[in-house]
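ABC transporter ATP-binding protein
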Amino acid sequence: MIDIKGITKSFGPLQVLKGIDLQIGKGEIVSIVGPSGAGKTTLLQIIGTLDRPDSGSVAIDGIDTSTLGGSKLADFRNRHVGFVFQFHQLLPEFTAKENIMIPAYIAGTQAKEAERRAAELLDFMGLADRGSHKPAELSGGEKQRVAVARALMNNPDVILADEPSGSLDSKNKAELHQLFFDLRDKFGQTFVIVTHDEHLASITDRTIKMNDGMLAGDNGNNGAEQGTPDDTNTTEQ
């Protein structure tokens, strides 16, 4: 699903990524871990086409994103990639349901279909009775579930999450982590999660370790070194 080859990235004199090669299979849940400044978020932004590498390529489902530009790149991102951030980034003036529907509006989906999909996601998230509530009326865990539903709105191939449970208490963390596996089982998305949460990293299918802009390890959740992923190293949760 994701094929990364030779990615480098610098900001001025600081080289943040130093030649990243990585493949992630369809339906995998992969965590990226490492110290602050290792390049984790920069790599995630490049995978999601929010930033461009200085060299190298990223292909998602066989499409080389470096060949896309302007409106084509924005359309690809909206349809094929969903984002979940540490802080939910919900728009306060809109209801939970309206926030979830925003990617569909951008994609030009008909209103009736967007409403049906949003209602389906709210129900799956256990928020069927919270769709008309605005973010200020939701708990922290509910807000993050709405943010996850928004990322899923256009049924993207890939969900990218940057410290998605970093602002949650232990109960809501556990529920959100389980939700990722439930979503993978129901919708089949590939998840790439940047995290400092050791428990979350330990239960993902693979843990990618980064240090100083390079890959420092690629381990399955049984602790064994993994190579290029295939169907055999995706562990049922």
